[in-house]
Amino acid sequence: MNYRAKPDWDGKVLELTDGLGADLIVETGGTATFARAVNATAPGGTLFTIGFVTGAEATINLLPIIIKALKVIGNNTGSVSDLLDAARAIGAARIEPVVDKMFSPDEATEAYAHMAAGGLHFGKLVFGLEW
Questions:
Q1: Whole-number Cα distances in Å, 9 to 39, 93, 108
Q2: What is the per-residue DSSP string for 5-66?
Q3: What's 107's DSSP letter?
Q4: Beta bridge partners of 41
Q5: H-run or E-run covering 80
Q6: 29-61, pLDDT tens digit by residue?
Q7: Predicted confidence (pLDDT) per residue in 70-119, tens digit
Q8: What's the burial of 123, exposed, middle or buried (CB within 10 Å: 0-12/13-18/19+)?
């Protein structure tokens, strides 16, 4: 769910799951969204945190994590071998990323301004490179 388009996205997750929450939440927002991710995770579920677009520090009430017995797992980017395995799996499954807009290398200033404006894109901003 797009946390910018639906700031109360955790409520929507709870609504869609009859109040149970999701078994797996992939948390990419960081500071601004971490508490909502905890709220949206089902008891015994996993909160997989991979990003911190809105910051890397969060003040969180630990009680819901403890009561729900959540598994909070952090992740880094992994090894080159992991990346190659992931690329092969993505290719085999024909997974297509959501791309909001492509920029040429000469449009770097515009790309960063577009990203910094916040809330204007959904999906990845991509630089097309000629080889």
A1: 10, 28, 31
A2: T-TTHHHHHHHHTTTS-EEEEEE-S-TTTHHHHHHHEEEEEEEEE---TT-S-----HHHHH
A3: G
A4: 22
A5: helix 80-93
A6: 899 999 999 999 999 999 999 888 888 898 999
A7: 999 998 777 788 889 988 999 999 998 888 888 988 888 888 888 877 76
A8: exposed
Q: Do the strands 71-74 and 41-49 form a parallel or antiparallel pair, or are they unpaired?
A: parallel
Residues making up the chain, counted from first to last = 131
- The model's pTM is 0.63
Distance CA 77, CA 114 (A): 25
Instruction: Please report, for residues 31, 101, 118, 125, the alpha-carbon distance to residue 98 in angstroms, rounded to integers and kept in the order given.
Output: 24, 9, 17, 9
Q: Phi then psi for 9, rounded to 5 degrees?
A: -60, -30
Query: Tokens representing 106?
Result: 């000469």
Report d(CA 52, CA 29) in Å as an integer. Answer: 5
Specify whether the CB–CB gap between 31 and 54 falls below 8 A.
Answer: yes
Look at the block and give the residue holding tokens 């990419």: 28
CA–CA distance, 121 with 24 (Å, rounded to integer): 24
d(CA 61, CA 63): 6
Closest CA to 50 of 81, 23, 78, 90: 78
